[in-house]
Design brief:
- The chain is mainly α and about 150 residues long.
- It folds into two domains: about 15-60; about 65-145.
- About 85% of the residues lie in helices and about 0% in strands.
- Helix 2 (about 15-60) packs antiparallel against helix 3 and helix 3 (about 70-100) runs antiparallel to helix 4 (about 105-140).
- It comes from Brassica oleracea var. oleracea.
- Keywords: Membrane, Transmembrane, Transmembrane helix.
- This is PGG domain-containing protein.
- InterPro entries: PGG_dom.
Length: about 150
């Protein structure tokens, strides 16, 4: 009876052990990348949140009756800020989901999606920052400097 149970257990070859060890190492390395991307997405969300409150407060407290240019610039700022915040939050959800997986391909898919979303968030932050600077510069009385 003991001989039959010993024969039915498959023995792992050295190649399959190396493959299993390599797969575990890849998963651990990917989880380190997930932590870095999560940190970047959290920073993008925090910066976007602060920029939204600061520039919106400045715009609302400015002179009454904003012109069409100021309104258009403010709308572009709001759109870029919204895109950045939403894409960083969605990237975080992908990363949290990927961190809970044990399959290497699923982790890689989650990281690729999150990388694309974090890239969109950072580009959107750059555009929102440039538009926000333009919005602030419009309010300055330039005639007094010349």
């Amino acid at each position: 009876m003991a001989l039959g149970s010993a024969v039915s257990q498959p023995r792992l070859s050295s190649a399959s052990r190396r493959r299993k060890r390599s797969n575990q190492q890849n998963i651990e390395d990917s989880k380190g990348g997930i932590k870095f991307l999560a940190w970047a997405a959290i920073m993008a969300a925090a910066v976007t949140f602060v920029m939204g409150f600061t520039c919106t407060k400045l715009y609302i407290s400015s002179a009454p009756g904003p012109g069409l240019i100021k309104k258009a610039i403010f709308m572009v700022f709001l759109m870029c800020n919204t895109i950045s915040l939403l894409s960083s939050v969605v990237a975080l959800t992908h990363l949290i989901w990927g961190q809970r997986q044990s399959d290497f391909q699923l982790i890689q898919k989650a990281m690729l999606r999150a990388m694309a979303l974090v890239t969109v968030a950072f580009v959107s932050i750059l555009v929102a920052f440039m538009v926000g600077v333009c919005l602030v510069l419009i309010h300055l009385p330039w005639q007094t400097y010349f």
